[in-house]
Amino acid sequence: LEGSESVTVKVGEGEAAVAWNLPGALLRHASPFFAAALSGPWPESESKTIEMKEDKPAAFRFFVRWMYTWVCSAEEKHPNQVVNNVLTSICIQAWVLGDKLLCPHFQDFALISLHARLTKSDEDLPSVICCAYRDTLPQSKLRDFGASILLDRIVNKKSDFHVGHFWIKLVHEVKDLSTDIVRIQMTRPKPFVLQLNWSELLMASSYTNYEFRNIK
After folding, report:
1. Is 189 left (phi over 0), alpha (psi -120 to 50) or beta?
2. Do 68 and 27 form a contact (C-beta atoms < 8 A)?
3. Which of 40, 84, 126, 177 is least enclosed, having the fewest CB within 10 Å?
4. Of 105, 35, 37, whose CA–CA distance to 66 is shortest?
């Protein structure tokens, strides 16, 4: 990195924006997005300044740490659930940022960190699934990750919460979740089929009559 030009990366908008001065060679090595922006007839190539107004500083801080160390570890579980939600949200934002930066390895690290958080508790799982389906395209790796975790909780009955209530609530709130769960579970060696009356589901006021059954 010695002798590499310094590049300013400004992330966020207004008073919340944060600027980093980073080696251009490191940015090019880590991300095809930065490699393209710092090469060719682009304003960023001349000014050595890249603005990312729509992205989150916390997620980019996660990226900078990974870029220098190639190591990401999950933050310890915090006693305050509000703080936990923020930390989980940063992992999700980091995965979305990695998609923009064309960094699949960084996305994998973000998923590893996210998975480590979810193994400690199911409390963050609803926000993970909702954010994944809100912020990513159909059949993205992040969507499949959230749907797979939920499927495992249902099938193995390892959830901290009442699965029926949680499942039906998410079906109502998250478009395509049920379709993705069916698609994922049908690729498994011993598929499970969700027993649902869809017309009743759409008008459900009680969530007690739905379960998975193993296909023998």
Report:
1. alpha
2. no
3. 40
4. 105
Residue 179's contacts (CB-CB under 8 Å, 6 or more residues apart) are none
How far is 96 from 103, CA to CA, in rounded Å? 10
Q: pLDDT tens track of the chain, all 216 residues?
A: 555 789 999 999 999 999 999 999 999 999 999 999 999 888 999 999 999 999 999 999 999 999 998 765 545 554 455 556 678 888 899 999 999 999 999 999 999 888 887 876 677 788 888 889 988 999 899 999 999 988 887 777 655 544 455 666 776 778 898 889 888 888 877 655 554 443 433 433 333 333 333 333
- Other C-beta atoms closer than 10 Å to the C-beta of 92 total 26
Those residues with Cβ within 8 angstroms of residue 5's Cβ, 6 or more apart along the chain or in another chain: 23, 24, 48
User: Which residues pair with residue 192 across a beta bridge?
Assistant: 214
Please give the model's pTM, rounded to 2 decimal places: 0.77
CA 193, distance to chain mean position in Å, is 26
Residue 74's identity, in one-letter code, is A
Identify residue 25 by its one-letter amino acid code.
A
The Cα 137–Cα 95 span in angstroms is: 13
